[in-house]
Specification:
The protein has nine helices and 18 strands. It has 306 residues and is of the alpha+beta class. Helix 1 crosses helix 9 and helix 2 crosses helix 3.
């Protein structure tokens, strides 16, 4: 039986899982994504797939992992409605068709993955499960947010976190906005989250694979609101023993139907708040003890044993 990974050859997370598979004595996984289909050729029928010289019957495909349905910058900078934009959308549709009809046991099925990227849905599910989340509004009127949250509040993207400028790819971070600034801005330009600003003692990054979960924490002292702005913070995570948080994260992943997730939670004293879930997020920046176990867990799924 053959496993399939949807992701890029140069993705370090993909490389780590492939190495773990080989170390277990498993055959190499079939690796593909939209750019590889475009560049290397393909053939897809209702019961088999051909790519990079390999012909695969769907009956022989066992398990799969959707690391990245679409490359981060796939389609960025293209003119809407152009021939190239249509071409790239078509290749993504082809990847989607393959994911749906192949019969693979995906770690996270494509449609679950796409739905789980909905941050409003995440917040709604978290509250339905009884977990605290920041008070949130999406509004075209800055006065609505200011009246709800006071003199300052947090703003962050509702979808995606990157855009392409003449200087290259730019990350959009969560930021603090003051009322005086907010009323000068055009909130109708694009929808985004406005949220109450919460006190943070510790950031938690929790990774789930199936019924397993690993927690790491990061001291929030002297860090910016969005810890990703601090390069040193990426290497300052510590393994955490927080069963309450890991159980909560597993409840979230189960409710969203995702086999893999990378989740952000925060603690202030004993208070625990859910912030965000990424069904395809990174984990290799976490301490080696956690990173290696997450890698092995994904490889174990692909190998067909639990």
């Amino acid at each position: 039986m053959t496993s399939v990974i949807v992701g890029a050859d140069d993705d370090t997370h993909v490389q780590a899982v492939i190495s773990a598979l080989l170390a277990q004595g498993e055959p190499p996984a079939i690796l593909l994504d939209a750019p590889s289909l475009r560049d290397d050729g393909y053939s897809l029928t209702l019961d088999r797939f051909q790519h990079r010289g390999q012909v695969l019957d769907f009956a022989d495909l066992a398990r799969g992992w959707l690391r990245r349905y679409a490359p981060t910058e796939w389609g960025a900078g293209l003119v809407a409605g152009s021939e190239e934009a249509l071409s790239r959308r078509s290749f993504l549709s082809l990847v989607g068709s393959l994911a749906r009809i192949s019969g693979c046991d995906w770690l996270t099925p494509l449609d679950r993955l796409l739905a789980a990227e909905d941050k409003f849905l995440q917040l709604r599910i978290a509250t339905s499960l009884g977990y605290a989340v920041p008070n949130t509004v999406v509004t075209s009127d800055p006065n609505v947010a200011a009246d709800l949250f006071g003199e300052e509040f947090v703003v962050k993207p509702i979808a995606g976190g990157y855009y392409v400028s003449p200087e290259g790819a730019q990350a959009v971070y969560a930021s603090v906005l003051h009322r005086a600034e907010a009323v000068q801005l055009d909130f109708s330009a694009a929808p985004f989250f406005a949220q109450q600003r919460l006190e943070v003692d510790v950031h938690l990054r929790i990774v789930t694979v199936g019924a397993q979960a690993w927690a790491c924490d990061l001291d929030a002292k002297n860090l910016p609101l969005d810890w990703r702005r601090d390069e040193h913070a990426h290497f300052s995570w510590r393994v955490a023993d927080d069963k309450v948080a890991t159980d909560a994260a597993l409840s979230m992943s189960a409710a969203l139907g995702v086999g893999y997730s990378s989740q952000d939670w925060i603690r202030h004293g004993d208070d625990l708040h859910f912030l965000d879930l990424n069904p395809g997020g990174q984990w290799l920046f976490l301490p080696d003890e956690v990173a290696s176990e997450v890698t092995q867990a994904i490889a174990t799924h692909l190998a067909g044993s639990r």
